[in-house]
Structures are given as structure tokens and as C-alpha cells.
Batch of 4 targets.
Target 1
Amino acid sequence: MLVEQGQVTDGLEQIRRGLTAYQMTGAGLAQAYLLTLLAEALRKADRIEESLATLANAHVWVERHAERWWEAEVYRLRGELLLLQPEPPIS
């Protein structure tokens, strides 16, 4: 994966192009899986908020299409991302 090799911009662009091309075929199977791959790449690029938003889309897909086989991974990655967020200040 290009993102893991330090080519963050190119890697994310490649993933997004692939995801868009796949979606344009009208296929829907494994959409949550593909969105989670994008979210993982965004996490590796330290783009936490964007990664969380992408996972929210994956979760919507899981709920809407009952695509449960990847649901646990969506939650696992979301938990990791939430732990990476800074703690809010205590008032």
C-alpha cells in the first residue's frame, strides 16, 4: 500500500479512485470493507476525523444493507480512532 510506504497523497488518491470506479459499476457487495480500508489508510496518514467520517459511512452501509460480516472491524477501527483523539479538557 502506497500510504504505508510514505506516499500518503498518492496512496489515498489511488484508493479513492478505485472505490469510485467500483461504485460506478453499480456493485454494492463489500462496500463496508472497502470503506474500512480507506479509513485505515486515513488513520495511517494521521487524518483521524476524516477516517471517523469514512467509518460512519461504512456503518450506515452495514445497517442499510445488513452487511454484517465486516461490522466488527468497523467498530474495532472506530474504537482505535477514538482512543487517538485528544482528551477533552476537564472543567
Target 2
Amino acid sequence: MTNGWNKRIFISDIHMGDQRSMEPFPPHSHPYGWLQENIPKLTQFLSDKLQAKDVGEVVILGDLFDQWVIPSDLDPIAGPDNICSNPSNQGIIDNLKKLAESSKLTYVPGNHDMSACRKDIPVMRDFIKATFPGINFICEDDRPTGVYRSENLKLIAEHGNMHCLFNAPDTWTSSGSFLPLGYFISRLVAYKVAQTGQSENYLDILCKFIAEFKTNPDFISDLFFAVADDAGLNKSHKIDMVNISGFGPSITIDEVAIKYSELIHDWDETHDKIDSKGAIEGDSLGLLWAAYKLYLGPETGPAINIAIFGHTHAWKNEDPYSFSDEDGQENEPSFRSHACKAIYANSGTWIDSVRLCTYVETEADEGNQRHYVRVRLYPGNQLLQELFVAL
């Protein structure tokens, strides 16, 4: 491999927050951010990979920053500068800068760090490149998403939210805005956490209410009202939207429900490869089907045999042609390495509430003509599962 290295590292779903998220912030009594306890662990991990001679690239597959998890009655974050300037995040930021300076850092945005509208994309790109000189920032010009493609290997990687009904950039509901309904769900769940101190992952709440309401004629509005009620909020509660393009200074819960009521119809009108049913499954069951349908299945051609996603917060490493595990659940550790026609992997997450901090490691073994895909647990770099495809 280039310059003697043969490994790539893929991590995602770090969810760094601003200083408000890490301490009680009036009028709330509890912190609400997702990353605090694991900051030292991630800081050391990045330092380890910076020093590793056999690692040529660290790829962050989205949700490095969290601009969604803010209580609905607080001013939203309009960009990542307040997150980067949070003193608690300094060790992470410093090591990301060193990785970028050494040309080892690639960053693909996710949904929690997506730009709110098209005009924000170049602003975000300029900020990232100025803050982390040397970074490879992969983002489309007209959508807040990107796809990583290896130069010589049949490997593709992205965050994965593009294939999820509630979390993909929404270009049809609000003129001038990309914000999907998942953004507003995150704001309501963050309000509940800040009020109660009870840790909540909005993906878990979303899955719960999808299962409860997906057969209802008014599925979208019923689900959103249930999330609001779970947070102790009524339909007239105002969500602070100051400085967010495409919205006024605030919007009520009732107005959000009305605005997104045609979400399923709008999705099916604009998506041909993943329909709304598949996109709902992406939010609730996981992204194996999306990876198979878009990149790895028999109708996609031979160009890709490894697809790596984030977003779901559940690590995966499996042969999509076996479908032996129900997607959306954590795999059990397995040290059995075997050849696969294709591999779908998910990098998991580093947030405090999830017990496993995981990452994906790929290694090109040219001598044996194998491309390994491993999921490892940090600290200790314990191997959880290893598969390989032919180079």
C-alpha cells in the first residue's frame, strides 16, 4: 500500500456538543449532551492512530459535531464553531488537527452536523478546512452529504442517514432548508433530558414510536405528537429556531407536524432506489438493506464489495448475502474469519450512553490478496469480528 501503510480506520457518531450541553444551563437543571465521559478515551484513541505507522487514514463518517441535541427552548447551534471552542473538547480538536496536518484525516458529514441549507455548505467547508488544515473534507456542493470512495479498493463509506426517512436532508418540506423531521425530534428529546436528567437516545425513542404508529393513517403527525407528549410538551410549545435558515424565530410543535405531514409521499416522489418503507426500516431496523440495495447486491454491479456506514449507533460486520442476523442489533463477538462475497460494516458510536466504543479497521493484505474488515473495541483494540473479501 501507499507509503508502507495498509490500514484505514473508520469511526463515526462522536456527537461533540457545545459547553451548554455539558452543564446545567438555565432554565434547565441537567446537562443534555451525548459526549462527556468518553472524551479522554477518544482523545487517546486519536493520538494512538496518529502515531500508528501502519494506519494511513482515519475516516470520520459523520456526526463529529452535534448541532441537533439542543433543548427546544434554547437557541440552536448554527455552526460548529461553538463546539470546537468548548474547552472540554480541546484534546479531541488538537488531535484532529494533528491528524489533518499529517494528511491522515478524512471527514464526511452526517445528519447531526449537516448544514441547514445550501448556502451554509461553503461556510461549513471553509470553517472545517481552516480549523483542520490538511483535512480531506468530503461534501457535495448542493447537499450536506458525502461519500468516501477508496482509490484502488472496492470500498465505499458514508454516514448512512441519506437512506433514512426521518434523517435524510429534506429538500421539499421547507423552502431553503435541509432540516428533516429528525432534527425536531432531537430537540424535543433534548428538552426532556435537560428537564429530567434521564439519559435518552433519540434513535431509541424514534424506533419505539415507529413500531407503535407506523400502521396509522396519520403516522408522521401521530409519531411527532407522541414524542412531544413523552417530553411533557403540548402542541403549542414553541421550538426556538433563531438563525436557522428557512424558519422564523420559532415554530410550534403543531406547525412542525403539519409541515411534515406529507413526508412519506414526498419521499416516494423523489427517491427511486430506497422507497419510504425501506427508509423507515433504515431508521428503525438498520442499514443493511440500504447497503445491499445501493452498493453490494447483484443488481449494483461488481464495483463495490465493502460498504461501511455509521448513524445507527450499533456496530455491524456481516456478509449481506447470508442475512443471518437481524439488522439493528449488536453482533456477538466472533473471532471466526472467513471469506465473503461482500461485507457490510457499521462503525458504531462513541457516545457516553452506549457501553461499547467501536471502530472499523480495514487492512489490505496484498501478499494473500485479502481485504480484511474488522470491528474493534477501544480501549484495548479488542477484536470483535473479522471478515475478508478478495482484493
Target 3
Amino acid sequence: MKIPSRDHAETVMNTIPTTSSNILPSYTAVGGTERSASTGLSAVILNRGGRYSRYEMFDELMKAGFDYILSMESGANRYDLENLTQTFPSVRFILFKDTVSIGDEINLAAAELTSPLFFVMRSDMKILRGGQAERMAERLLAPQGQLNDTASPYKRLCTVPVIQDTHAEILPTLIVPALIPENKHGLIKTIPVTSLREGHPTLFPFDGIGIYDRERFIRLGGYDSSIKSSYWQLMDFGFRSSLWGEEIASTQFIKMSYETELPLENSTVNESSLKFILKNLSPVFRKDYAHIPYRRFFDYYKRRRHLSAAWKEFKEARDWVKINRYRFKSDARTIAERFITEEEDISQEKQ
């Protein structure tokens, strides 16, 4: 039996504004012809590979009442797709022709879906606490009178769950940024902490996992596909979210568990980290806009050590910040200080 599919030859992601040169990878969409529910929340599965029961996972997600289920099949074993599409008509499989990053997968999910919320999780995870999809979506609605200046009815850009490992121990998945003036490896370090209360802030969604407000995500520009390292993609997404006034925070009402050991995080200093520095650490905020002063070029050149390439990249970043200058609400130092202050306040509350 031939599996119904549609090939997507176009590469420009025109649903996400050009804030960071986003390009969709080539892919084919298979199945997903029926809507399972109308809760306003869809599920996105980032397939890490390995042996696990896909039938059991999809069945549990269907019973939870997600509108649609997207299974991102980057480098995955696809031998069972024909049977799966027949058994689960509301599951859409996204088949990539090449290996893609976390950010590429999530960007594409936002382009494919129409639900106002989408829950990104890994294929080797289970939902331990949270209830039905409808209940999850309801908990994210902003109380009357507390809506910000966006048209979205939801509390924030992204809400992340509590996550435990294979030994049932809670992981420190919340990320607190700290700027180090003399740190030659990019002027930034991150401190992982454990979620202590509802609405505990974090810089970015650990491993990309969380419930995203699709409208806010698209307005922000999604993940930067020109940054190839998944770690620095997450860092860039998180800092840009904070710099532009968006919020990423945890919830105690949803708890998930990894069923396998986590792969090692690659935070190597490379071209991806340099681009992150230019876009997020170099801008200076003045009154109601941001810009990158020319004097910042000399610091960047010391890291890049290639004059023509350094100037080209610096100029591109400076032009990008200029285009988006009024979207900035603060600079990196202010963001880091705010995170540290909030963390100190939370620690005092605990005592």
C-alpha cells in the first residue's frame, strides 16, 4: 500500500519572519489527515532513535487528546511507517532528507501546525503528570486582566515541565545565565537549577522541551537555522526571548521522564557561539532601542582571528540588530542580573 504524502520542495519558511535567516530543510510529510481533538494543543515528537514502543507512545498521546501529533523523523528508522499511518490517522510523520538541528525541527513544526499551542517532547520521554491536553492548555491561559500587549491569550512564550531521569531523580533543567567579563570563552556561563515553584524562570527550554505559544514563537522568529549547534541555537533563542521581552518559565503541573540516558551536551566554542555573541551579548540598549557600537568589533576580532570574515560577520549582525532595534527591551547584562536576582529571591522564599 502506498503511503499518502506530500513533498515540500520550497525552502523558505514564509510563516516565520526574517529575524535570523531561517530556512526550512527539505522534507516530506506523510499521513496526519485527520484531526484527533479540538483542545488547542498539538504534540511534536523529536525522534531521537533507539528502540521503544512507538505504538504505545502514539496511543497514549491520542488518548490525552492532542489535536495533532507530529513525529519528526530526522535520521530515524522508518520501516514501520505504513502500519503506523493506518493505525494513527492523526499522526503526521515529517521525513527529513538530511540531518537537522533541534531548532530546524521545531521551526518546521510551527510552520506545519495550526494549533495555538504545541508541546515539544522527545521520543524517549513519557508524561508522568499533567492530565489531558485540554487541561494543560487551560492552565496556560492568562488570568483576566493580566494579558500583555500581545493578542495571545496565553501566559508566556514557552512553559517547561519538571523532568526526571531514568532513576526518578529531578533534573536541574532550568538555566540561569551569568555574564563573566573576563571569560575568554564567550563572556557567558550558565547555571543549571532545579524547579522550585510554579513560574520559575529559565533562559531556554532544556533539550527544546516545552509547550510553545505558536503565535509568539512565529513573531519572535523561531530558532536561528543559521546557527548549526543545537546548544547555541537554544542559547540564542533563550537570550533573544528575554532581550525582546518574552518569558520562558516552568510549571509544576506537568512532569515528564526520560526513558533513556541523556546524550552529552556539546557547548564547544565555535562559529555558532561567535554568532550567538554578536547577536545577543554585543548589543547595547539605549532608552528604547539597541545597537552594536563599532568598538565591539575589536573584541570580536580577537575571537575570530580573521579580519575579513570578522568584519563581514560583525557588519551582518550590526545590520540585523538595526532592523530589530526597537524590539529589544534590555541588554544581556540586565537580563543576567535579573535572573540572578530572581534566583536569590526564590532561594530566600524556600528558606
Target 4
Amino acid sequence: MTTQTSIPVRFMTRPSFTKLLAALVEAGYQLIGPTVRDGVVVFDHIDGARDLPRGIEDEQGRGSYRLASTAAGDKFFGFTSGPDSAKRWLFPPREVIANVRRRDGHLDFEKEPQDPQRYAFVGLRACDLRAIAIQDRVFSAGAAVNQSYVGRREKAFFIGVNCATPSANCFCASVGSGPRCTAGYDLALTELDAGFVVEVGSATGRRFLTSVRTRPATADEMSEATSVTDKTEARMQKAVTTQGLPELLYRSRDSSRWAKIAEVCLACGNCTAVCPTCFCHDIVDGVDLSGASAQRSREWASCFSLDFSRAMGTHVRGSSAARYRQWATHKFASWFEQFGESGCVGCGRCITWCPAGIDITEQLALLAREDNQDNGEVKA
């Protein structure tokens, strides 16, 4: 992705959008976009616009998700976030980083070659684009640069979509990451009945947009596009109060709230798997049965795993309560110290895909309420 450049906002019909995706494929990009599989909208390889979940919307709740048909049958992006994000492609769940082979009594160490594929991500929401920017801070800055992440990231093309409807679990507006795409995209689309209002975020995006037929967006179309996200923000049912949140979490280390959460939390790690910003991983070595070769891999890890905090023969966080507290405190407090911002983008995936239906926004609100009571303050 290249730097942003300012050009007039354009309007693109759906046939032109189909041709835009075809132009990306012709240029050597592998399209990664939303598609329906096993009753879920997932991000996966697609061949073009025909694979998008046209005429589909989703209904999400605490620990629940289902698809339904929508009256706006020709809309490509009538759904909200599914369980996948760009993380699965930019930072794969398992990635071989080195191979070792025994030859003639010697060990040959071979670094795994970088993935040559260029990915074009279609339909990323504002929260997902913000999550990519957060993972950039983790993998691209500082002394420990993840070169394979950087290689995939720098070759990627991002098409963002402004949200026309929130899920019941979205709270991106309260953490400042949506519902409108503001940065990190090559092209950003707002889907209207007649087509797309298109904003250009990079020279590469402008080049591909000029390869298909578009026209300047009218004032009415631009106004309607702004209204789409304004209405989405107004309809959000959940929020997180970020002011004073790190301090609240630090002084709540011994709160009984964590034990209450642990009564239902399964410590399954679903929330970390679907989170677009969680970056914890482990380095795993494996040897084949003959002893002739070995492989080193980088694999996703979860702070909800008991062995995640194993040190000196013991578990630092041996209870589910301690592990949930660690996850919440890191995400909403110590992340600020590490990266200067929150580790949460408000996508609500951790609520939807939690089998116990734990709602992080509700738990943070209860923590604040109990903290007020402990300090003798009047409950709002």
C-alpha cells in the first residue's frame, strides 16, 4: 500500500466494481474477501464479485450468529464482521520459519522463503483497517521486526467498506475506530442502492480505479454516503467508556469481578483467535521420526491457555480468573504503555464468538460500577 493522495470522490456502478476486482486479479493479486461457508461469512480466497455474499445479512448476539436474507438483494456488503479478519493472512495461524536437514553428518539450516503472493483484501471494515495499523506497531516497529509480516503487508491492497449497519455487538464508535474508514485503505467504498461512492487513499488505489469506468460523485451521493455511517453510529447498542479505563483496571487487580467471570469463562481462547489485534504467538520445533529433518514454526498462542504463563516449572496465572484479568488488562490498559493506544477496535467479535456469551463491554461497566461503590461514590 502506498501513501494517501487526494482526488475527487468518485461513483462506481456494481458492474464496474466487478471489473475492478478482475483488474486486480489480472495484475497478479489473490483476492481475499467475504464469502459464505458453512453458514458463516468468512474471509477466504475468492475469484471475483460472484463469490461475495450478495443479499446476505447477519444477526449477532452474545455467543450467537446466524445468516439471513435481506430485502436489499443486490447489496454485496449488507452483513457485518464475521469471525475472520486480515490477521489470518498477514499473520497466519501457523507459519514455517526455518527447516533443518541432516546431510552427510552435517546439519543444513534453511530459512523458509517469503510468501511471493500479493493479496488484495476486499471488504475490510474500519475496525479491521484500524486493527492492521495496530499490528503494524507490533510487527513492523522496534528491534524485533517480523519480516514475513512486513513482506505481505507491503505488497497488499486494501479495499475498505464503510458500515451501513452495526451488529448488536459492535462498539467501534466508542473506541474511535469506526464505523467510517478514515485511514489505511487504498480504496474505501460506501455501498448505496445504485452503486458505490469511492474514496481513494493511495496512488495505487487511484491507478486501479482509473482502469474502470467511474464518474464524479454528486453532492447528493456524497451526502447519502455520509448519512450511511452517521446512522450506523447512532444505532450502536454497546459502548466502552475509555476515559480512566487503564487506571480502573490497574486498581481492580483484586476485584471479585474476575472470579465471577471465571464462573462461566471456559478459557477456550475463542476471543483471542477471532480478535483482529491479538498477536501472541509461540515458536514450536518439530522433528520427523527418522531424525533427518526438523522444522521451526511460528504459531498463534492464547493468554487463556494454562501453559501460556508457565515459567520455572509453575503457572504464573493458574486460574481462569487470572487469565481473563490478564487479557482484559493488557487489551484496555497496558497496551497503552506498550503501543500508545488501546488494543481493542470495538469489532465485537469476542462477544459474538464467546460460547459462554461473555460481553466485555458489560464486564467493564460492572467493574466500574463496583469500583464506584467500593470508593463510596454514588452509582449513576
